[in-house]
UniProtKB/TrEMBL annotation:
PANTHER family from the UniProt entry: CALCIUM-TRANSPORTING ATPASE
Entry membrane topology: Multi-pass membrane protein
Membrane spanning stretches: 59-77, 83-102, 250-268, 280-302, 715-736, 742-764, 792-814, 834-856, 877-897, 909-927
The name this protein goes by in its record: Ca2+-transporting ATPase
Family per record: Belongs to the cation transport ATPase (P-type) (TC 3.A.3) family. Type IIA subfamily.
Keywords on record: ATP-binding, Magnesium, Membrane, Nucleotide-binding, Translocase, Transmembrane, Transmembrane helix
Record NCBIfam families: ATPase_P-type
InterPro entries (alphabetical): ATPase_P-typ_cation-transptr_C (IPR006068), ATPase_P-typ_cation-transptr_N (IPR004014), ATPase_P-typ_cyto_dom_N (IPR023299), ATPase_P-typ_P_site (IPR018303), ATPase_P-typ_TM_dom_sf (IPR023298), ATPase_P-typ_transduc_dom_A_sf (IPR008250), ATPase_P-type_domA (IPR059000), HAD-like_sf (IPR036412)
Gene Ontology CC annotation, any one: membrane
Record's subcellular location: Membrane
Length: 934
C-alpha cells in the first residue's frame, strides 16, 4: 500500500498514472469498474419477507390472529370444521400487511430518490475540462478542485494549496481547521491528523482553495477503514407522526375499554361467548387507527415527491410540517430574489463616470479580472463560439465585462502571473492578490466593499498620477458611491499598490511572523483607489407575485443581504418587501426632533449590520417587528435575527448558501440551502434545498406544506369519525338489546375498504385554492383544535346512527317473517337466530356502514361545498370510491361471497333505502358548511 503522504506530488501522479489534465473518460470508467463507486457501505436493507413478517408485530393484529385460531379450534371441538371465518380474518390481515409493505417501499423509494438529488458533488478535471459530477463517480487518479465551503469527496494527495485550511474534526477530532501544504513530504509512520499534504473524505474546506489527486475512494478511505457512516441519513419519526402515534394509543385504550364493556354486556344478555369475543376483538381492530402512521408516512413521502418536482428537495421530513406553520421567510437577495446574472452597467473613477473601453475603464477591468477566481470558458467553433464564466456571480460579471472590451482573463493571467493571494471572506469583505509584472515588479490588487476599502486607501488614481485622498475628495467618493447604490447597483471598489522589482518581496509574503490576520492587515493598507464598478442583478420576474402571496398568507418576507443598504432597499421596494426605506440613523434623528421614540412605528424599516451591532439582543427582539430589510450583515448577525424573530413566537424559514450561513440555517425552524450556488456545508445543515435558488420556490413549498398538513388532518378526521361510527353501531345495538348488527368478518371488511384507498386518496388532494389566504398553522395548536374533535364525534354518531337505522328498517320491515318471535323480547332463540342467520337487516347495516363512509370521504376535502371545489378535482378519490363501492356490491350480490360474509342479496327497493341513507352524510355536512360559510 502506497504511503501517499511520504512521496512527492509528481511521484504520486506517476504512481496512479494520472496527469494535471485529469483522466480520460474511458480510463475513469475502467477504474470505476475496478474500484466501484465512491460510497460508504450502508446497512443492508431488510429482506422483503422480514418486512412483511414485521407487519404482524402489532398487538391488535396478533390478537386477531389468536381470535382466528380460537374460532377454528372451537368449531373443530364442536365437530364443525368452519374454515370460512378464520380464513377471511387471515386473508384481511394479510392484505393489510401487503398494503403496509407497499406503503413503506414507496416512502423508502421517495427518500432514496431525494437523497440522490441532494448527493454531494465534486469538481473534477476530466480530459482537460472541469466538470461538476456526483462525488460517487470519483475514482483514484482523478484531479479534484477544492474551494471554500466544499466537502472533501475522497482521500487525496494535494497538488496545489493556496491558504488551504481543512476542518477534519469528523475524522481526527481536531477542533480547529488544519492548514495544508502541497509541497511537504512527510515520514511514512506519521498519524493521519498530521498529514498536511493530504485531505481526507468528509473534511470541510473552511478557507482557501487547492487541487488534489484522488488516492482512495469509498470504503478504502480513512473514514471507510473505521466504518464512519456519517453520510447515512436516518429518517426519524416526525413530530406529527409521534403526536398521531400517541393519539392512536389513547384511542386504542379507549376502544379496548369499550370493547370489553360490549363483551361483558353481551355475556350478561346471554349472547354466545365466542361470538361476542370475536365481535369485540374485530371491533377493537376496526376502531383503532393502527394504519394511521403508515398512511401519514405515505402522505409525507408523496408530498415530498411533488415538492421535489417543483425544485424543493426536502432533506428532513419534519420540515414538511413546519413549512405549513412558517410566519417569516428570511431570504438572501442575490440569486434568490434576483436572477443571479450580474452585469456591469457603470464604471466610475474619482472624476466620475468612465467608458468601459477607455483607458481608465480598461485599467479598472484589468485589475478586477486579475484579482478574480472566476474562469472564462469558450465553446463551439469560431463562427458560433460562446463565452461563459464559471465562478461567483460578481466575479463572473467582471471578467465578462472585461472580455467585451477585448480583455481576455487567461491572457491577462499569463502576462501578470499570480504569486500570492488572500481569499475573500465575509468578515473582511475583500480579496487581495499579488502579481508579477512584465518589468519584474509586483502589483497588489485588492477589491471589495467600498466603505471598507476606502478606509484602507491613502491615494486615488487620477490618470497618470496618484493623488492623496483629502477630506473633500473622500466626501466626493462617498457621494459617487451613494449615487450608484441609489440606482440599485452593486458597487465593487478596486485598489492597488505597486512594489519594485525586489527579489526579497516574495519571501516576505511567506514570512510567518505574526498571525495571518496581522499579515493581512499589513498588506491591505496604504492602497491607491482605482475606481468603482457598478453592476446590477435584476429581480426575478416571478418573485413580486410570490411576495404578494406571502403577505396574503400572513407570512412576512424579510430580506437579509450583505449588499449595501441602498441597493437592498431599492430591490426590496421594487419587489414589494419594503414600502418605505429608512435606517435606524434616520429613526434616531426623528427621535431627537420629536422628543419621543419612533421604533414602534408600523412602517417597516431597514437596518444595517453596523446598526445591528450597536443594540442588544433584547432591544432587537423588541424592535425587529418594524424591519423588513437587513443589509451589510455578517453570518453572526443572521443568527441574531433568526433568534430574535423566534423569541417573538415566529416560525422562521431561512435561506443561505455559504459555509458561514450554516449556523443560521440550523438555528432557523426551516433551513433552506441554495442548490446551485450553495456549498455542501450549507446543504448539509439545511432542511430543504432549493434546486433553482428561487424565492418563489419557497413560497410554493409553503403552499405544498400547508396542503400536506391539511390532507393529513383530513385523513385523521375521516378515519376517526368512521371508527367512532363502527363502535357506536355495535355498542348501541347491544345496550338496547338488539341483535348484533354486524359480525366480526363484516367489521373487518368495512375497516379494510374504508381505511385504505379513500384515506390515501385524501393524501393527494390538491390544496384549497384559498389555502394561501389563510393564516399559518400555529405550532401551538394541536391536531384536534378548531373544533375538529366535536366534528369527529358528531359525524361518527351520524354514521353509526345511519347504520343502526338501516339495521332496524331491515329487521322490522323485511326480516319479520324470517326471524322468530318479537325482537323486543329478550329471547335466546331470537338472539341465536340473529347471530347465525344471514338476513336483510344485517346486510343493509353492513352496506350502509361501508357506503356512508365512502360518501363521507368527499366531505373531508374542504370546508367549502363539494359543488364549489368540484367533484373531479381529486380523480383518485373518485376512483377509490368507485372501486370500493364496487367491491361492496360484489360481496353482497355474488352468492359465494355473500355466503362467506353471511349476507343476502338485496332487492332494488332495499338498495334504494341503502343508497339514500348512505348519501345522507353528504347532505348533512353540506348543510353545516353552508351555515358556517354564510
Amino acid at each position: 500500500m502506497t504511503n501517499w503522504h511520504s512521496i512527492t506530488k509528481e511521484e504520486a501522479l506517476r504512481e496512479l498514472d494520472s496527469a494535471l489534465t485529469g483522466l480520460t473518460k474511458k480510463e475513469a470508467a475502467k477504474r470505476q469498474r475496478k474500484y466501484g463507486f465512491n460510497l460508504l457501505e450502508t446497512k443492508k436493507k431488510t429482506p422483503l419477507f422480514l418486512r412483511f413478517i414485521s407487519q404482524f408485530k402489532d398487538f391488535m393484529i396478533l390478537t386477531l390472529i389468536f381470535a382466528a385460531l380460537v374460532s377454528f379450534f372451537v368449531s373443530f371441538l364442536h365437530g364443525e370444521l368452519d374454515f370460512v371465518e378464520p380464513a377471511i380474518i387471515i386473508l384481511i390481515i394479510t392484505l393489510n400487511a401487503v398494503l403496509g409493505v407497499l406503503q413503506e417501499s414507496k416512502a423508502e423509494k421517495s427518500l432514496e430518490a431525494l437523497q440522490k438529488m441532494s448527493a454531494p458533488a465534486a469538481l473534477v478535471m476530466r480530459e482537460g475540462v472541469i466538470e461538476n459530477i456526483d462525488a460517487k463517480e470519483l475514482v483514484p487518479g482523478d484531479i479534484i478542485y477544492l474551494e471554500t465551503g466544499h466537502f472533501v469527496p475522497a482521500d487525496a494527495r494535494l497538488l496545489t494549496a493556496v491558504n488551504l485550511k481543512i476542518d477534519e474534526a469528523s475524522l481526527t477530532g481536531e477542533s480547529h481547521p488544519i492548514e495544508k501544504d502541497s509541497d511537504t513530504v512527510l515520514k511514512e509512520n506519521i498519524l493521519p491528523a498530521e498529514r498536511i499534504n493530504m485531505v481526507a473524505a468528509t473534511g470541510i474546506v473552511t478557507y482557501g482553495r487547492g487541487t488534489a489527486m484522488v488516492t482512495a475512494t469509498g470504503m478504502h478511505t480513512e473514514v471507510g477503514h473505521i466504518a464512519r457512516l456519517i453520510m447515512e441519513d436516518e429518517t426519524p419519526m416526525t413530530p406529527l407522526q409521534k403526536r398521531l402515534a400517541a393519539t392512536g394509543k389513547v384511542l386504542g385504550i379507549a376502544a379496548l375499554i369499550i370493547c370489553i364493556i360490549i363483551f361483558l354486556i353481551g355475556i350478561l344478555k346471554n349472547r354466545p361467548i365466542f361470538e361476542m369475543f370475536m365481535t369485540a376483538v374485530s371491533l377493537a381492530v376496526a376502531a383503532i387507527p393502527e394504519g394511521l402512521p403508515a398512511i401519514v408516512t405515505i402522505m409525507l413521502s408523496l408530498g415530498v415527491q411533488r415538492m421535489a418536482k417543483k425544485n424543493a428537495v426536502i432533506r428532513k421530513l419534519p420540515a414538511v410540517e413546519t413549512l405549513g406553520s412558517a410566519t417569516v421567510i428570511c431570504s438572501d437577495k442575490t440569486g434568490t430574489l434576483t436572477q443571479n446574472k450580474m452585469t456591469v452597467t457603470e464604471i466610475c473613477s474619482s472624476k466620475g463616470k468612465e467608458a468601459p473601453d477607455g483607458s481608465t475603464g480598461k485599467l479598472l477591468l484589468t485589475l478586477a479580472s486579475l484579482c478574480n477566481d472566476a474562469i472564462l470558458q469558450t465553446s463551439g467553433k469560431r463562427k458560433h463560439q460562446t463565452v461563459s464564466a464559471t465562478g461567483e456571480p460578481t466575479e463572473n460579471a467582471l471578467i465578462m465585462a472585461a472580455y467585451q472590451v477585448g480583455l481576455n482573463k487567461p491572457q491577462l493571467d499569463l502576462l501578470h502571473p499570480r504569486i500570492y493571494e488572500i481569499p475573500f471572506d465575509s468578515a473582511r469583505k475583500q480579496m487581495t492578490t499579488i502579481h508579477r509584472l512584465p518589468d519584474g515588479g509586483y502589483r497588489q490588487i485588492t477589491k471589495g466593499a467600498f466603505d471598507i476599502l476606502l478606509s484602507e486607501c491613502t491615494n486615488v488614481y487620477r490618470g497618470n498620477r496618484d493623488t492623496p485622498i483629502t477630506h473633500t475628495l473622500r466626501e466626493q467618493l462617498i457621494r459617487l458611491n451613494e449615487g450608484m447604490t441609489a440606482k440599485a447597483l452593486r458597487v465593487i471598489a478596486v485598489a492597488y499598490k505597486d512594489y519594485s522589482a525586489d527579489s526579497s518581496f516574495p519571501a516576505r509574503l511567506k514570512n510567518n511572523n505574526g498571525t495571518q490576520k496581522d499579515r493581512t492587515a499589513r498588506l491591505e493598507q496604504g492602497l491607491t483607489l482605482a475606481g468603482l464598478i457598478g453592476m446590477i442583478d435584476p429581480p426575478r420576474p416571478e418573485v413580486r407575485e410570490a411576495v404578494l402571496t406571502c403577505q396574503m398568507a400572513g407570512i412576512t418576507p424579510v430580506m437579509i443581504t450583505g449588499d449595501h443598504v441602498s441597493t437592498a432597499c431599492a430591490i426590496a421596494k421594487e419587489l414589494g418587501i419594503l414600502t418605505k426605506e429608512s435606517s435606524m440613523a434616520e429613526l434616531r434623528a426623528a427621535e431627537i426632533t420629536s422628543g419621543h421614540s419612533t421604533y414602534n412605528s408600523s412602517i417597516p424599516q431597514a437596518m444595517t449590520g453596523a446598526e445591528l451591532s450597536q443594540i442588544t439582543q433584547e432591544e432587537l427582539v423588541e424592535r425587529i417587528k418594524n424591519y423588513r430589510v437587513f443589509a451589510r450583515v455578517s453570518p453572526e448577525h443572521k443568527v441574531r435575527i433568526v433568534k430574535a424573530l423566534q423569541a417573538r413566537g415566529e416560525v422562521v424559514a431561512m435561506t443561505g448558501d455559504g459555509v458561514n450561513d450554516a449556523p443560521a440555517l440550523k438555528a432557523a425552524d426551516i433551513g433552506c440551502a441554495m442548490g446551485i450556488t450553495g456549498t455542501d456545508v450549507a446543504k448539509n445543515a439545511a432542511d430543504m434545498i432549493l434546486t433553482d435558488d428561487n424565492f418563489a420556490t419557497i413560497v410554493a413549498a409553503v403552499k405544498e406544506g400547508r396542503g400536506i398538513y391539511d390532507n393529513i388532518k383530513k385523513a385523521v378526521h375521516f378515519l376517526l369519525s368512521c371508527n367512532i361510527g363502527e363502535i357506536l353501531t355495535i355498542f348501541v345495538a347491544i345496550i338496547f338489546g338488539l341483535p348484533s348488527p354486524l359480525i366480526a368478518v363484516q367489521l373487518l371488511w368495512v375497516n379494510l375498504v374504508t381505511d385504505s384507498l379513500p384515506a390515501i386518496s385524501l393524501g393527494v388532494d390538491p390544496p384549497d385554492k384559498d389555502i394561501m389566504k389563510k393564516k399559518p398553522n400555529s405550532p401551538d395548536k394541536g391536531m384536534f383544535s378548531d373544533g375538529l374533535t366535536v366534528k369527529i364525534i358528531t359525524e361518527g354518531i351520524l354514521i353509526g346512527s345511519l347504520a343502526l337505522l338501516a339495521f332496524i328498517i331491515g329487521i322490522r320491515f323485511f326480516d319479520s317473517a324470517a326471524l322468530p318471535g318479537d325482537l323486543t323480547r329478550n329471547s335466546r332463540t331470537v338472539e341465536l337466530a340473529a347471530l347465525t342467520t344471514p338476513y336483510i337487516g344485517r346486510t343493509m347495516a353492513f352496506a350502509v356502514l361501508s357506503l356512508s363512509q365512502l360518501f363521507h370521504s368527499f366531505n373531508m376535502r374542504s370546508e367549502h361545498s363539494i359543488t364549489k371545489i368540484g367533484l373531479f378535482t381529486n380523480i383518485k378519490l373518485v376512483l377509490s370510491f368507485i372501486v370500493c363501492a364496487f367491491l361492496q356490491v360484489i360481496v353482497i350480490s355474488v352468492k359465494p361471497l355473500a355466503d362467506i360474509f353471511k349476507v343476502v342479496p338485496l332487492t332494488p327497493a332495499q338498495w334504494s333505502i341503502v343508497l339514500v341513507l348512505s348519501f345522507l352524510p353528504i347532505v348533512v355536512v353540506e348543510l353545516q358548511k353552508s351555515k358556517r360559510n354564510k
